[in-house]
């Protein structure tokens, strides 16, 4: 029996894969639990359309991430924090602070977990960090911390 997987199934495949399984496994386990649907020509056409749309979306996302990388690497991220007279900050610059400024520059949402700081930022000065925009696209950014 041919089925189209709708969820990831261990040792069988990923969503959208067409696999051949024994009739009982397909009818009694995969289909009732919603892990798969029966294969038909119409369902195969629908899966092909979904895969094509997914491929286009991934390509657009990669192009958008490359443009965001260029924008981030072209600018220095300015972060203003309150500091003492010796230039030491009251607190520290966090990944959330960097993500907020990066979001303003790119116009897209950047999560704090996408930001990696090379060192802890606790004083005024210039630092480096990176922002992971996609699986293989990372923007190396310059961070300038100034006193308010």
UniProtKB/TrEMBL annotation:
One of its GO terms (biological process) is translation. One of its GO terms (cellular component) is ribonucleoprotein complex. Residues 13-40 form the Ribosomal protein L9 domain. It comes from the Bacteria. Keywords: Ribonucleoprotein, Ribosomal protein, RNA-binding, rRNA-binding. PROSITE patterns: RIBOSOMAL_L9. SUPFAM superfamilies: L9 N-domain-like, Ribosomal protein L9 C-domain. GO terms for molecular function: rRNA binding; structural constituent of ribosome. Signal peptide: none annotated. The keyword GTP-binding does not apply. PANTHER family: 50S RIBOSOMAL PROTEIN L9 (PTHR21368). Belongs to the bacterial ribosomal protein bL9 family. Binds to the 23S rRNA. HAMAP family: Ribosomal_bL9 (MF_00503). This is Large ribosomal subunit protein bL9. It comes from Trueperella pecoris.
């Amino acid at each position: 029996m041919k089925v189209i997987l709708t969820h990831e199934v261990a040792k069988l495949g990923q969503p959208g894969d067409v696999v051949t399984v024994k009739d009982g496994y397909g009818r009694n386990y995969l289909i009732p639990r919603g892990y798969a649907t029966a294969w038909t020509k119409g369902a195969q056409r629908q899966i092909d359309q979904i895969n094509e749309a997914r491929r286009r979306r991934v390509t657009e996302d990669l192009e958008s991430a490359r443009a965001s990388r260029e924008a981030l690497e072209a600018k220095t991220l300015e972060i203003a924090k309150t500091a003492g007279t010796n230039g030491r900050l009251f607190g520290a610059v966090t990944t959330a602070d960097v993500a907020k400024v990066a979001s303003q520059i790119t116009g897209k949402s950047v999560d704090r977990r996408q930001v990696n700081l090379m060192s802890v930022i606790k004083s005024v000065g210039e630092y480096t960090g990176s922002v992971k925009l996609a699986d293989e696209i990372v923007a190396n950014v310059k961070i300038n911390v100034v006193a308010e």
